[in-house]
Amino acid sequence: MSNDCTYCGSDVTAHDPVFVAEGVDERQPVGRFCNYACLTAYVDEEELTSGACCRI
Fold first, then answer.
1. What confidence score (pLDDT) does residue 1 get?
2. What is the pTM of this model?
């Protein structure tokens, strides 16, 4: 796996990286980001929160 940011393509090791994984029993890496700014921009541009709802 490369060290490229999923959002901007920069080398994440030169920053304060954030790694994202999915799964309950076995975690699978799904993204690596330079910082929370790249993660937030990626989530917004991919509309990953569209239709999401928290249960109260």
1. 63
2. 0.81
